[in-house]
Amino acid sequence: MPYVTLPTNDRQLERFDLSQPRDFPKIAMQPLPRIAYAAAHVVADPRVIHDPFIDTAIDWDKTLDYRRYLWDLGLGVAEAMDTAQRGMGLDWPTSLELIKRSVDAAQNFGGAAQLACGAGTDHLPAETSLSIDDVIGAYDTQCGAVEAVGGRIILMASRALAACAKSPDDYGRVYDYILGQVNRPVIIHWLGEMFDPALAGYWGTDEPMAAMDVCLDVLAANAAKIDGIKISLLDDHKEIIMRRRLPDGIRMYTGDDFNYAALIAGDTAGHSDALLGIFDAIAPAASAALAAMGRGDMDGYFEILDPTIALSRHIFKPQTRFYKTGIVFMAYLNGHQDHFVMVGGQQGARSALHLAELFRLADQAGLLSDPYRASARMATVMATYGIEV
Protein backbone atom coordinates (compact mmCIF):
# COMPACT_ATOMS: atom_id res chain seq x y z
CA MET A 1 0.00 0.00 0.00
CA PRO A 2 1.19 3.57 -0.63
CA TYR A 3 2.19 6.14 1.94
CA VAL A 4 2.24 9.93 2.12
CA THR A 5 4.09 12.44 4.26
CA LEU A 6 1.77 14.45 6.50
CA PRO A 7 2.32 17.27 9.01
CA THR A 8 1.60 16.75 12.70
CA ASN A 9 0.38 19.19 15.34
CA ASP A 10 3.87 19.57 16.80
CA ARG A 11 5.25 20.93 13.49
CA GLN A 12 6.87 17.62 12.62
CA LEU A 13 6.32 15.34 9.62
CA GLU A 14 5.25 11.71 9.69
CA ARG A 15 4.98 8.87 7.23
CA PHE A 16 1.34 7.80 6.95
CA ASP A 17 0.74 4.37 5.45
CA LEU A 18 -2.66 3.99 3.85
CA SER A 19 -4.89 1.03 4.58
CA GLN A 20 -7.06 -1.01 2.27
CA PRO A 21 -10.26 0.81 1.33
CA ARG A 22 -13.57 -0.65 2.36
CA ASP A 23 -15.69 -2.35 -0.28
CA PHE A 24 -19.08 -0.74 0.16
CA PRO A 25 -21.65 -2.78 -1.75
CA LYS A 26 -23.41 -0.68 -4.37
CA ILE A 27 -27.15 -1.16 -4.20
CA ALA A 28 -29.47 -1.12 -7.16
CA MET A 29 -31.56 2.04 -7.23
CA GLN A 30 -34.43 1.21 -4.93
CA PRO A 31 -36.36 2.78 -2.08
CA LEU A 32 -34.32 3.01 1.10
CA PRO A 33 -35.85 2.74 4.58
CA ARG A 34 -35.24 6.44 5.14
CA ILE A 35 -35.48 9.42 2.83
CA ALA A 36 -31.84 10.40 2.43
CA TYR A 37 -30.78 13.57 0.65
CA ALA A 38 -27.11 14.39 0.15
CA ALA A 39 -26.60 18.14 -0.01
CA ALA A 40 -24.34 18.17 -3.05
CA HIS A 41 -21.29 20.33 -3.76
CA VAL A 42 -20.47 22.06 -7.03
CA VAL A 43 -17.32 21.58 -9.08
CA ALA A 44 -15.58 24.81 -9.97
CA ASP A 45 -14.10 25.40 -13.42
CA PRO A 46 -10.53 26.71 -13.01
CA ARG A 47 -9.90 26.85 -16.75
CA VAL A 48 -11.93 29.95 -17.56
CA ILE A 49 -10.92 33.58 -17.14
CA HIS A 50 -12.75 34.99 -14.13
CA ASP A 51 -12.18 36.57 -10.72
CA PRO A 52 -12.79 33.77 -8.20
CA PHE A 53 -13.68 36.12 -5.33
CA ILE A 54 -16.27 37.86 -7.52
CA ASP A 55 -17.44 35.59 -10.34
CA THR A 56 -18.83 32.06 -10.29
CA ALA A 57 -17.43 29.54 -12.77
CA ILE A 58 -18.92 26.03 -12.70
CA ASP A 59 -17.78 22.87 -14.45
CA TRP A 60 -21.28 21.77 -15.39
CA ASP A 61 -20.33 18.32 -16.67
CA LYS A 62 -18.47 17.29 -13.52
CA THR A 63 -21.09 18.91 -11.28
CA LEU A 64 -23.94 16.98 -12.89
CA ASP A 65 -21.90 13.77 -13.05
CA TYR A 66 -21.62 13.95 -9.28
CA ARG A 67 -25.40 14.17 -8.93
CA ARG A 68 -25.79 11.11 -11.15
CA TYR A 69 -23.30 9.31 -8.93
CA LEU A 70 -25.40 10.10 -5.85
CA TRP A 71 -28.62 9.01 -7.56
CA ASP A 72 -26.95 5.77 -8.68
CA LEU A 73 -26.29 5.05 -5.00
CA GLY A 74 -29.98 5.48 -4.21
CA LEU A 75 -29.52 8.82 -2.47
CA GLY A 76 -31.48 11.98 -3.14
CA VAL A 77 -29.88 15.30 -4.02
CA ALA A 78 -30.52 18.50 -2.09
CA GLU A 79 -29.60 21.05 -4.72
CA ALA A 80 -28.22 24.58 -4.47
CA MET A 81 -27.91 24.46 -0.70
CA ASP A 82 -25.15 25.64 1.60
CA THR A 83 -22.98 22.63 0.64
CA ALA A 84 -23.03 23.99 -2.91
CA GLN A 85 -21.60 27.21 -1.40
CA ARG A 86 -24.87 29.08 -1.61
CA GLY A 87 -24.10 32.48 -0.15
CA MET A 88 -20.37 31.66 -0.14
CA GLY A 89 -19.53 31.98 -3.82
CA LEU A 90 -22.63 30.55 -5.52
CA ASP A 91 -24.97 33.40 -6.46
CA TRP A 92 -28.69 33.20 -7.23
CA PRO A 93 -28.48 33.31 -11.07
CA THR A 94 -25.96 30.47 -11.08
CA SER A 95 -28.02 28.59 -8.47
CA LEU A 96 -31.08 28.75 -10.70
CA GLU A 97 -29.07 27.49 -13.67
CA LEU A 98 -27.80 24.65 -11.48
CA ILE A 99 -31.36 23.81 -10.43
CA LYS A 100 -32.56 23.80 -14.06
CA ARG A 101 -29.75 21.48 -15.12
CA SER A 102 -30.30 19.12 -12.19
CA VAL A 103 -34.05 18.93 -12.80
CA ASP A 104 -33.29 17.98 -16.41
CA ALA A 105 -30.68 15.41 -15.38
CA ALA A 106 -33.07 13.81 -12.90
CA GLN A 107 -35.51 12.98 -15.70
CA ASN A 108 -33.13 10.32 -16.98
CA PHE A 109 -33.74 8.32 -13.82
CA GLY A 110 -37.38 7.67 -14.67
CA GLY A 111 -38.80 9.59 -11.75
CA ALA A 112 -36.84 7.53 -9.22
CA ALA A 113 -34.30 10.27 -8.55
CA GLN A 114 -35.14 12.39 -5.54
CA LEU A 115 -34.35 16.08 -5.96
CA ALA A 116 -35.20 19.08 -3.81
CA CYS A 117 -33.91 22.58 -4.49
CA GLY A 118 -33.01 25.56 -2.34
CA ALA A 119 -35.09 28.72 -2.61
CA GLY A 120 -34.20 31.69 -0.45
CA THR A 121 -33.54 35.41 -0.51
CA ASP A 122 -29.81 35.51 -1.18
CA HIS A 123 -30.13 37.97 -4.07
CA LEU A 124 -31.04 40.54 -1.38
CA PRO A 125 -28.41 42.15 0.85
CA ALA A 126 -28.80 41.27 4.52
CA GLU A 127 -29.52 44.80 5.73
CA THR A 128 -31.61 46.16 8.58
CA SER A 129 -33.08 48.73 6.19
CA LEU A 130 -35.03 46.04 4.35
CA SER A 131 -38.73 45.64 4.94
CA ILE A 132 -40.61 42.41 5.54
CA ASP A 133 -42.31 42.98 2.20
CA ASP A 134 -38.86 43.02 0.57
CA VAL A 135 -38.14 39.62 2.08
CA ILE A 136 -41.51 38.23 1.01
CA GLY A 137 -40.90 39.49 -2.52
CA ALA A 138 -37.46 37.88 -2.66
CA TYR A 139 -38.75 34.52 -1.42
CA ASP A 140 -41.65 34.76 -3.87
CA THR A 141 -39.24 35.34 -6.76
CA GLN A 142 -37.04 32.35 -6.00
CA CYS A 143 -39.88 29.97 -5.09
CA GLY A 144 -41.68 30.85 -8.30
CA ALA A 145 -38.51 30.31 -10.33
CA VAL A 146 -37.80 26.91 -8.77
CA GLU A 147 -41.35 25.68 -9.29
CA ALA A 148 -41.40 27.05 -12.85
CA VAL A 149 -38.54 24.72 -13.84
CA GLY A 150 -40.12 21.73 -12.10
CA GLY A 151 -38.16 21.79 -8.85
CA ARG A 152 -39.40 20.92 -5.42
CA ILE A 153 -38.60 23.59 -2.83
CA ILE A 154 -36.39 23.56 0.21
CA LEU A 155 -37.26 26.86 1.84
CA MET A 156 -33.88 28.12 3.01
CA ALA A 157 -33.33 30.30 6.04
CA SER A 158 -32.97 33.96 5.09
CA ARG A 159 -30.12 36.24 6.10
CA ALA A 160 -32.24 39.18 4.97
CA LEU A 161 -35.10 38.15 7.26
CA ALA A 162 -32.72 37.66 10.19
CA ALA A 163 -31.34 41.16 9.59
CA CYS A 164 -34.63 43.07 9.40
CA ALA A 165 -37.14 41.10 11.49
CA LYS A 166 -38.21 42.87 14.66
CA SER A 167 -40.09 40.03 16.34
CA PRO A 168 -41.18 36.39 15.96
CA ASP A 169 -44.37 37.69 14.37
CA ASP A 170 -42.36 38.90 11.39
CA TYR A 171 -41.19 35.32 10.79
CA GLY A 172 -44.76 34.08 11.01
CA ARG A 173 -45.89 36.68 8.50
CA VAL A 174 -43.21 35.76 5.97
CA TYR A 175 -43.59 32.00 6.22
CA ASP A 176 -47.39 32.09 6.28
CA TYR A 177 -47.45 34.13 3.08
CA ILE A 178 -44.86 32.08 1.18
CA LEU A 179 -46.28 28.73 2.22
CA GLY A 180 -49.68 29.93 1.11
CA GLN A 181 -48.31 30.44 -2.43
CA VAL A 182 -46.34 27.25 -3.09
CA ASN A 183 -47.81 24.50 -5.24
CA ARG A 184 -46.24 21.50 -3.50
CA PRO A 185 -45.27 20.79 0.12
CA VAL A 186 -41.82 22.13 0.92
CA ILE A 187 -38.98 21.30 3.28
CA ILE A 188 -38.27 24.09 5.79
CA HIS A 189 -34.59 24.67 6.54
CA TRP A 190 -33.49 25.93 9.95
CA LEU A 191 -29.75 26.51 9.72
CA GLY A 192 -27.95 27.28 12.96
CA GLU A 193 -25.55 30.18 13.38
CA MET A 194 -22.59 27.79 13.59
CA PHE A 195 -23.17 27.19 9.86
CA ASP A 196 -23.93 30.83 9.11
CA PRO A 197 -23.31 33.55 11.72
CA ALA A 198 -25.69 35.88 9.85
CA LEU A 199 -28.57 33.62 10.95
CA ALA A 200 -28.08 34.24 14.68
CA GLY A 201 -31.38 34.82 16.44
CA TYR A 202 -33.44 33.14 13.75
CA TRP A 203 -37.16 32.89 14.51
CA GLY A 204 -36.87 36.13 16.46
CA THR A 205 -35.01 35.00 19.57
CA ASP A 206 -31.53 33.97 20.69
CA GLU A 207 -32.97 31.30 23.01
CA PRO A 208 -33.05 27.98 21.11
CA MET A 209 -36.08 26.47 22.83
CA ALA A 210 -38.09 29.67 22.38
CA ALA A 211 -37.05 29.68 18.72
CA MET A 212 -38.26 26.10 18.47
CA ASP A 213 -41.67 27.17 19.81
CA VAL A 214 -41.96 29.87 17.14
CA CYS A 215 -40.92 27.44 14.42
CA LEU A 216 -43.39 24.80 15.59
CA ASP A 217 -46.18 27.37 15.52
CA VAL A 218 -45.33 28.13 11.88
CA LEU A 219 -45.30 24.43 11.05
CA ALA A 220 -48.63 23.79 12.73
CA ALA A 221 -50.28 26.74 10.97
CA ASN A 222 -49.09 25.53 7.55
CA ALA A 223 -48.89 21.75 7.95
CA ALA A 224 -50.59 20.98 4.63
CA LYS A 225 -47.83 22.82 2.74
CA ILE A 226 -44.89 21.27 4.61
CA ASP A 227 -43.28 17.91 3.90
CA GLY A 228 -40.72 18.27 6.66
CA ILE A 229 -38.17 20.40 8.42
CA LYS A 230 -34.41 20.10 8.28
CA ILE A 231 -32.68 21.44 11.36
CA SER A 232 -28.93 21.95 11.43
CA LEU A 233 -28.15 22.80 15.05
CA LEU A 234 -25.55 20.07 15.78
CA ASP A 235 -27.54 19.23 18.92
CA ASP A 236 -29.18 15.80 18.91
CA HIS A 237 -31.06 16.50 22.15
CA LYS A 238 -32.87 19.50 20.66
CA GLU A 239 -33.59 17.61 17.46
CA ILE A 240 -35.22 14.74 19.33
CA ILE A 241 -37.32 17.14 21.41
CA MET A 242 -38.53 18.89 18.27
CA ARG A 243 -39.07 15.63 16.41
CA ARG A 244 -41.46 14.47 19.10
CA ARG A 245 -43.40 17.73 18.91
CA LEU A 246 -43.86 17.88 15.15
CA PRO A 247 -47.41 18.07 13.80
CA ASP A 248 -48.68 14.84 12.28
CA GLY A 249 -47.42 14.27 8.75
CA ILE A 250 -44.35 16.50 9.01
CA ARG A 251 -40.99 14.75 8.79
CA MET A 252 -37.83 15.58 10.65
CA TYR A 253 -34.82 15.71 8.31
CA THR A 254 -31.67 15.63 10.34
CA GLY A 255 -29.01 18.14 9.40
CA ASP A 256 -26.86 17.07 12.35
CA ASP A 257 -23.49 16.13 10.89
CA PHE A 258 -22.25 15.13 14.36
CA ASN A 259 -24.94 12.64 15.41
CA TYR A 260 -26.64 11.45 12.23
CA ALA A 261 -26.24 7.69 12.71
CA ALA A 262 -28.31 7.51 15.92
CA LEU A 263 -30.82 10.14 14.79
CA ILE A 264 -31.55 8.31 11.54
CA ALA A 265 -31.81 4.99 13.38
CA GLY A 266 -34.32 6.61 15.72
CA ASP A 267 -35.97 5.36 18.88
CA THR A 268 -39.31 3.96 19.96
CA ALA A 269 -40.91 7.38 19.48
CA GLY A 270 -39.72 7.95 15.92
CA HIS A 271 -36.74 8.67 13.68
CA SER A 272 -35.20 11.36 11.52
CA ASP A 273 -34.85 11.18 7.78
CA ALA A 274 -31.71 12.77 6.37
CA LEU A 275 -30.65 15.90 4.52
CA LEU A 276 -26.94 16.07 5.16
CA GLY A 277 -23.85 17.68 3.74
CA ILE A 278 -21.71 14.82 5.02
CA PHE A 279 -23.63 12.37 2.83
CA ASP A 280 -21.90 14.04 -0.13
CA ALA A 281 -18.52 12.99 1.25
CA ILE A 282 -19.48 9.54 2.58
CA ALA A 283 -22.06 8.63 -0.05
CA PRO A 284 -21.00 4.96 -0.57
CA ALA A 285 -21.05 4.34 3.20
CA ALA A 286 -24.39 6.12 3.64
CA SER A 287 -25.98 4.09 0.86
CA ALA A 288 -24.60 0.78 2.13
CA ALA A 289 -25.59 1.53 5.74
CA LEU A 290 -29.17 2.38 4.78
CA ALA A 291 -29.36 -0.76 2.65
CA ALA A 292 -28.29 -2.75 5.72
CA MET A 293 -31.04 -1.05 7.73
CA GLY A 294 -33.50 -2.01 5.01
CA ARG A 295 -32.51 -5.64 5.50
CA GLY A 296 -33.07 -5.32 9.23
CA ASP A 297 -29.34 -5.46 9.91
CA MET A 298 -28.93 -2.64 12.42
CA ASP A 299 -25.56 -3.97 13.60
CA GLY A 300 -24.34 -3.68 10.02
CA TYR A 301 -25.83 -0.19 9.75
CA PHE A 302 -23.88 1.10 12.73
CA GLU A 303 -20.74 -0.87 11.83
CA ILE A 304 -20.61 1.03 8.51
CA LEU A 305 -21.58 4.49 9.75
CA ASP A 306 -19.85 4.69 13.12
CA PRO A 307 -16.32 5.01 11.62
CA THR A 308 -17.52 7.95 9.50
CA ILE A 309 -18.59 10.06 12.46
CA ALA A 310 -15.08 11.11 13.52
CA LEU A 311 -14.43 12.21 9.94
CA SER A 312 -17.68 14.18 9.82
CA ARG A 313 -17.06 15.89 13.15
CA HIS A 314 -13.65 16.93 11.89
CA ILE A 315 -14.97 18.26 8.57
CA PHE A 316 -17.69 20.22 10.40
CA LYS A 317 -15.58 21.45 13.31
CA PRO A 318 -15.46 25.22 13.99
CA GLN A 319 -15.40 27.34 12.00
CA THR A 320 -18.24 25.11 10.81
CA ARG A 321 -19.19 27.25 7.82
CA PHE A 322 -15.93 26.19 6.16
CA TYR A 323 -16.97 22.54 6.07
CA LYS A 324 -17.43 22.80 2.29
CA THR A 325 -13.66 22.71 1.89
CA GLY A 326 -13.52 19.24 3.39
CA ILE A 327 -16.43 18.02 1.27
CA VAL A 328 -14.75 19.13 -1.96
CA PHE A 329 -11.40 17.77 -0.80
CA MET A 330 -12.96 14.32 -0.39
CA ALA A 331 -14.37 14.52 -3.92
CA TYR A 332 -10.91 15.43 -5.23
CA LEU A 333 -9.19 12.61 -3.35
CA ASN A 334 -11.72 10.10 -4.68
CA GLY A 335 -11.42 11.16 -8.32
CA HIS A 336 -14.76 12.90 -8.81
CA GLN A 337 -12.92 16.02 -9.99
CA ASP A 338 -9.40 16.56 -11.22
CA HIS A 339 -8.47 19.57 -9.11
CA PHE A 340 -8.89 20.99 -5.61
CA VAL A 341 -10.23 24.39 -6.62
CA MET A 342 -13.46 25.80 -5.20
CA VAL A 343 -15.91 28.53 -6.06
CA GLY A 344 -14.82 31.71 -4.31
CA GLY A 345 -11.34 30.36 -3.61
CA GLN A 346 -12.67 28.47 -0.58
CA GLN A 347 -10.07 25.71 -0.97
CA GLY A 348 -7.94 27.98 1.19
CA ALA A 349 -10.41 28.07 4.09
CA ARG A 350 -8.82 25.15 5.96
CA SER A 351 -5.21 24.60 6.98
CA ALA A 352 -2.75 21.92 5.91
CA LEU A 353 -3.08 20.33 9.35
CA HIS A 354 -6.86 20.19 8.99
CA LEU A 355 -6.59 18.51 5.59
CA ALA A 356 -3.98 16.07 6.90
CA GLU A 357 -6.24 14.94 9.74
CA LEU A 358 -9.15 14.66 7.33
CA PHE A 359 -7.02 12.36 5.18
CA ARG A 360 -6.16 10.14 8.14
CA LEU A 361 -9.79 9.86 9.24
CA ALA A 362 -11.05 9.17 5.71
CA ASP A 363 -8.51 6.36 5.44
CA GLN A 364 -9.59 4.92 8.80
CA ALA A 365 -13.22 4.93 7.64
CA GLY A 366 -12.26 3.07 4.46
CA LEU A 367 -13.47 5.97 2.32
CA LEU A 368 -10.42 6.52 0.08
CA SER A 369 -11.59 4.40 -2.82
CA ASP A 370 -8.20 4.26 -4.59
CA PRO A 371 -5.33 4.65 -2.10
CA TYR A 372 -2.73 5.17 -4.83
CA ARG A 373 -4.66 8.02 -6.41
CA ALA A 374 -5.54 9.50 -3.02
CA SER A 375 -1.94 9.42 -1.80
CA ALA A 376 -0.66 11.01 -5.01
CA ARG A 377 -3.24 13.79 -4.82
CA MET A 378 -2.60 14.35 -1.13
CA ALA A 379 1.12 14.69 -1.83
CA THR A 380 0.35 17.25 -4.55
CA VAL A 381 -1.71 19.34 -2.15
CA MET A 382 0.84 19.06 0.67
CA ALA A 383 3.56 20.24 -1.73
CA THR A 384 1.70 23.56 -2.09
CA TYR A 385 2.28 24.03 1.66
CA GLY A 386 5.99 23.24 1.32
CA ILE A 387 5.63 19.68 2.64
CA GLU A 388 7.66 17.41 0.36
CA VAL A 389 9.74 14.38 1.17
Fourth-tier CATH superfamily name: Aldolase class I
How many strands, what sense, and barrel or not for the largest sheet?
8 strands, parallel, barrel
Return the string of H and E elements.
EEEHEHEHEHHEHEHEHEHHHHHH
Counting DSSP E segments of at least 2 residues, the number of strands comes to 10
Total domain units: 1
| Count of runs of 4 or more consecutive helical residues | 14
- Give the CATH architecture: Alpha-Beta Barrel
Radius of gyration: 20 Å
Spatial strand sequence of the major β-sheet:
3-4-5-6-7-8-9-10
| SSE class | alpha/beta
Give helix % range: 40-55%
Shape: globular
Q: Briefly note the CATH topology name.
A: TIM Barrel
The average pLDDT value, as a whole number, equals: 96
CATH C-level class is Alpha Beta
Low-confidence stretches: none
| Termini Cα gap | 17 Å
Our estimate of the beta-strand percent is 5-15%
What does this structure look like?
- The protein is of the alpha/beta class and 389 residues long.
- The chain has one domain (26-346): Aldolase class I (TIM Barrel).
- The protein has helices at 60-72, 92-106, 132-148, 159-164, 168-181, 208-221, 236-245, 260-265, 278-281, 283-294, 298-315, 323-333, 352-364, 371-383; strands at residues 3-7, 13-17, 36-39, 76-79, 115-119, 153-155, 186-191, 226-232, 251-254, 273-276.
- Strands 3-4-5-6-7-8-9-10 form an eight-stranded parallel barrel, surrounded by four helices. A two-stranded antiparallel ribbon has the order 1-2.
- Helix 3 (132-148) packs parallel to helix 5 (168-181), helix 10 packs antiparallel against helix 11 and helix 11 packs antiparallel against helix 13.
- The mean pLDDT is 96.
